[in-house]
From TrEMBL:
InterPro entries: Glyco_trans_31 (IPR002659). This is Hexosyltransferase. It catalyses: a neolactoside nLc4Cer(d18:1(4E)) + UDP-N-acetyl-alpha-D-glucosamine = a neolactoside IV(3)-beta-GlcNAc-nLc4Cer(d18:1(4E)) + UDP + H(+); a beta-D-Gal-(1->4)-beta-D-Glc-(1<->1)-Cer(d18:1(4E)) + UDP-N-acetyl-alpha-D-glucosamine = a beta-D-GlcNAc-(1->3)-beta-D-Gal-(1->4)-beta-D-Glc-(1<->1)-Cer(d18:1(4E)) + UDP + H(+). It is found in: Golgi apparatus membrane. Belongs to the glycosyltransferase 31 family. It comes from Sparus aurata. Pathway: Protein modification; protein glycosylation. The gene is B3GNT5.
Length: 387
């Protein structure tokens, strides 16, 4: 037997180079990888082994007078009779910023068109926009400055046309999103408490309203309570990196894990849960500015847990295909394409081509190819392909 030493040395050289390359990549990424892995290990250990979420409720409970500071803002724009004398299936709050006029108009013309919903779907859905205020001249959009008309006056004019802006006098900013969340639950409690469901959504989300209405009608007919659905985050750790938009200092939240919560891009709760969340906001410290996390804290205090719905996309954008549209609830990250998506998703051919045995088999194959990826993709999970 002859041994080819030259080939052996070549293989050893390749192995050495590969090892060096892998080690280099690991060394470059180690700090970020290490922080992420360690944070999640600590989080899940806290959640499943220690499970001291009861301490969160006790430590964040504050006197009602102090809690009132998070909700005691005057209304700049309001519509107290929006739901009066109507059987409201869904009150849908869209979180928006004052300058996002085009996004609001796109929603009014597509999935948030109340007239379409009433005439075509046969139910009452009230769509309103929650926003704060631009409180300094430098915050105003450039077109407002050029026009010589104050931006608040522009909002007043917009509201006269559409009657759907709910605005309070706090600075509209990322760090005040929790105030916007509290606004929604307090407004429902005082203005629309009889609505069967409440949905909160971002203004760059797409909602497949026919699918959602059909689903909520079924849930309502079964009398389900303690209902809360969306894209669920379980065992999520606080982000301690100061470079992150979602940085939370230890002084603000000292525990290793957040209670379960749903992605703030879009989720739905039943009316009874909405009322319980309202009650929780009356005694909890709302200084944590990540609104979906605060929602999880409130829900934990009242003993309500979120349920996963595979066709709520969370922060992800759903693939474009009629087999996806057939069961789609929400998709995130839509602005310019919202008109085309609305037209495609609600086209009659969607139901025609996805029904029957052949249609279902075809769509299962298509969804497997679109959703069952060998890497993490923050939209519908692989199991959605088989439902």
């Amino acid at each position: 037997m002859f041994v080819n030493f030259r080939r052996i040395r070549r293989c050893q050289c390749v192995q050495l180079m590969t090892t060096c390359l892998v080690l280099s990549v690991v060394m470059v990424c180690w700090e970020q990888l290490d922080n992420g892995v360690v944070s999640h290990v600590k989080s899940y250990s806290y959640r499943y082994l220690v499970n001291r979420f009861t301490y969160i409720n006790k430590s964040l409970t504050i006197p009602r007078e102090q809690a009132r500071s998070f909700s005691n803002f005057r209304y700049l724009l309001d519509h107290p009779d929006k739901c009066a004398n109507k059987d409201v299936l869904l009150l849908l709050f869209v979180k928006t910023s004052p300058e996002n006029i085009e996004r609001r108009n796109a929603i009014r013309s597509t999935w948030g068109n109340e007239t379409y919903i009433q005439n075509e779907l046969g139910v009452t859905v009230k769509v309103v926009f929650a926003l704060g205020a631009l409180q300094t001249k430098k915050d105003e959009p450039s077109w407002s400055k050029r026009s010589g008309v104050g931006f608040q006056e522009q909002l007043v004019h917009e509201d006269r046309l559409h009657g759907d802006l709910i605005q309070q006098d706090f600075l509209d900013s990322f760090h005040n999103l929790t105030l916007k969340l509290i606004l929604q639950f307090h407004w429902m409690h005082s203005r629309c408490a009889h609505a069967r469901f409440l949905m909160t959504a971002d203004d760059d989300i797409f909602v497949h309203m026919p699918n959602l209405v059909s689903y909520l009608q079924d849930v309502s007919s079964r009398g389900i309570s303690d209902f809360w659905i969306g894209r669920v985050h379980r065992g999520a750790p606080p982000i301690r990196s100061k470079d992150s938009k979602y940085y939370v200092p230890f002084e603000m939240y000292q525990w290793l894990s957040y209670p379960d919560y749903t992605a703030g891009a879009g989720y739905v709760v039943s009316g009874d849960v909405a009322d319980k969340i309202y009650q929780a906001t009356l005694t909890l410290n709302a200084s944590i500015y990540i609104d979906d996390v605060f929602m999880g804290i409130c829900a934990n205090a009242i003993g309500v847990s979120p349920q996963e719905h595979v066709y709520f996309s969370g922060e992800g954008k759903a693939p474009y295909h009629l087999c996806i549209y057939d069961q789609m609830m929400t998709s995130h990250g839509h602005v310019e394409d919202i008109y085309d998506l609305w037209k495609a998703a609600t086209h009659p051919q969607v139901k025609q081509r996805t029904s029957g045995l052949l249609g279902r088999l075809y769509c299962t194959a298509v969804k497997m190819s679109l959703l069952c990826k060998p890497y993490y993709f923050n939209t519908y999970p692989c199991k959605a392909a088989f439902l």
